[in-house]
Design goal:
By secondary structure, this protein is α/β, with parallel strands linked by helices. The chain has a 7-stranded mixed beta sheet with strand order 5-4-3-6-7-9-8, with helices on both faces. Strands 10-14-13-12-11 form a 5-stranded antiparallel beta sheet, with helices on one face. Strands 1-2 form a two-stranded antiparallel ribbon.
Length: about 425
């Protein structure tokens, strides 16, 4: 689960039932002596969703029996990931999102707007019943001014609001139909070792699409190639890990190198999400890469590079050496410096460069000056964090490192060469200081 997800630990079902009485008939004590519910019971699932939304987020839902009942922890994982993307790559005061296939619950816009009070949504669906329930749920939560629900045509553009709106969007999100046919659904259930963990109340329109999720998201990508920077980040959830390689192949075929892959885990259920952008703002690896060995060949390039200085006596000395090095690189400006919000003994500098002046070829005058096509923008923006942590050998030893994170730019090689150049120069500076053991 996402580290900020409050459902990392299972809820106390007995306490939930005490605070939300409609859940009481569905709570029982299992063989371990813990309170739980029957997750294969549609009424129990619905009451649990209602309880979590009302008690934790002040939201109320009206759901039809023949449409998906969204599990809150899983849906929240996706919202929190988008929150990270917006924080690190979007500078808008007001955030605009598009939820594709919002469903009867409109769960994503409601959750997101409940958490982030500057977010607004357009939510679309092709199913008239789902649209009507979504509008009702938006209204009964007094979100009409922030969430607009629209019906779109199944044979029309998936990103219809982006095609017609005069305003840009910060992100799109989608929980697409995972399956290509009813037989595909049956095969998926058969492959699960212990059978499905919960009942699914979804209608065919929510579960099945021609070509399955891979084709559906490929259609979104195809439309995004025309819209490009009309939206900062295009994203979608995926129900099958096997869908990821085909989509990444599409990215690479069209030279889209700014993309992200993440994984959502809820109990025994795993979901994935993929996102891509035509803008220069980059995501840290923690939001763009997962450690799953089966996916390493399709991961984007690392936007976070670690360079260790095991003999540096402290992060303060390392920071001093770094400042000296940066001051000597032509065209590099340190925009800001602040203590790290993650580590106690570290500080972060945000720097930008108008052109590549540090590579060996550039310093010898053999490299044409590399500048951003827009002269007002830097060719590279990155953060450099000086980090100090206890050594894994003894508590008295200190391990220091520089953590370079690509923030903005078009060319990964420029970022990598900058990190390597700075690290070499810092090593030399520390040796001059006499602070390397």
């Amino acid at each position: 689960m996402h580290p900020r997800n409050p459902y990392n630990k299972p809820p106390d079902f007995a306490e939930l039932a005490r605070r939300y009485p409609p859940l009481r008939p569905h709570v029982f004590i299992n063989h371990t002596g813990s309170s739980t519910i029957n997750f294969k019971s549609p009424p129990a699932q619905k009451r649990l969703t209602e309880a979590l939304l009302q008690l934790d987020y002040g939201l109320s839902l009206t759901l039809p029996d023949d449409r998906l009942c969204p599990p809150v922890p899983n849906r929240l994982n996706y919202v929190l990931w988008l929150q990270d993307i917006v924080k690190f790559t979007c500078g808008s005061a007001t955030v605009r999102g598009l939820d594709i296939g919002t469903g009867a619950s409109a769960i994503y816009p409601l959750l997101a707007c409940g958490i982030e009070h500057t977010w607004n949504f357009v939510a679309t669906d092709i199913d008239e019943q789902s649209v009507q329930f979504a509008k009702q749920n938006v209204s009964q939560n007094s979100m009409d001014s922030r969430i607009v629900v629209e019906r779109v045509q199944a044979d029309g553009p998936i990103l219809q609001p982006l095609h017609t709106s005069l305003m840009d969007f910060d992100f799109t999100m989608c929980n697409p139909p995972f399956y290509s046919s009813a037989e595909d659904i049956s095969r998926s259930a058969e492959f699960k070792e212990f059978g499905p963990n919960a009942v699914c109340s979804g209608a065919e329109v929510e579960m099945i699409t021609p070509g399955g999720e891979t084709y559906f998201v490929a259609r979104i990508f195809s439309e995004s190639l025309q819209l490009r920077t009309k939206c900062r980040w295009y994203t979608s959830m995926l129900g099958k890990m096997s869908s990821i390689p085909g989509l990444v192949s599409l990215f690479r075929e069209h030279s889209v190198d700014n993309y992200a892959i993440t994984e959502f885990i809820q109990g025994q259920t795993r979901r994935w999400a993929i996102g891509w952008s035509f803008q220069d703002a980059r995501l840290p690896d923690i939001f763009a890469r997962v450690s799953n060995p089966a996916l390493q060949n399709v991961m984007p390039s690392r936007n976070t590079l670690h360079h260790a200085f095991p003999g540096a006596r402290s992060a303060d000395i390392l920071t001093s050496a770094l400042r000296n090095v940066l001051a000597l690189i032509n065209g590099v400006t340190v925009a800001s410096s602040a203590p790290s919000v993650i580590y106690d003994h570290s500080s972060t500098m945000l720097m930008h460069a108008r052109s590549n002046t540090w590579s060996r070829a550039a310093r010898r005058g053999k490299l044409p000056e590399t500048v951003h096509p827009d002269q007002e923008l830097p060719v590279l923006r990155c953060s450099v964090e000086c980090r100090e942590r206890s050594s894994s050998y003894t508590s008295s030893d200190v391990a220091c490192e520089l953590l370079f994170t690509w923030v903005e730019g078009k060319d990964w090689l420029i970022f990598e060469s900058f990190a390597s150049h700075v690290s070499r120069k810092v090593t030399s500076t520390l040796q001059e200081f006499g602070d390397m053991i």
